[in-house]
Design a protein that fits this description.
Elements lengths: L6 H8 L18 H14 L6 H9 L3 H24 L4
Length: 92
Amino acid sequence: MGVKPCWSVAQKKLSMYKARFVAAHKAEHFLTKASKDEVIQALDSDLARFIPQNIFLTYKKENFRRLVETLKRVTQELMDQGMRDYFESDGR
């Protein structure tokens, strides 16, 4: 999907919050097979509000496969670039 993750950019964005950002899940959560159904359900219930209906239906037809694969790849790349250490140290 052409997403090129850069942890330093993401980290700068997190530092813009007034309060410290607290993740609801560990990043590894999105790399597990168990999270796949949860991610698909969230995409199915929320994504249609943000993108045109015809695009949403295309993604839905393939059970959001490309989006799930991209989420896993981007998460892994960000973790390899330092995101894991950042969250394990409570963002310090």
